Amino acid sequence: MPPLVIAIIVLLVVHYFLAIATIFVLMKDKGLVKAIIPWNLVILLVPIAGPIAYWTYKLCTRKK
Fold first, then answer.
1. How far apart are CA 45 and CA 38, in angstroms?
2. Which among 2, 7, 12, 44 is least surrounded, fewest beta carbons within 10 Å?
3. pLDDT tens for each residue of the chain, 64 residues long
4. CA gyration radius, the chain
């Protein structure tokens, strides 16, 4: 198997677990409201960067 295919598989596996953990925290923090729908889409559709964006947003808004 070419290294590029292995890298893509590893990236998607990491994204899967990171996205599930991030959505779990998102639901726990905000509950079920319409405002989390855009976050769910970003977290699920943008590999790795989506969950990182939410964690960055969460860290920045808690400091205020």
1. 11
2. 2
3. 899 999 999 999 998 898 888 888 888 877 767 778 888 888 888 888 888 888 898 888 876 5
4. 14
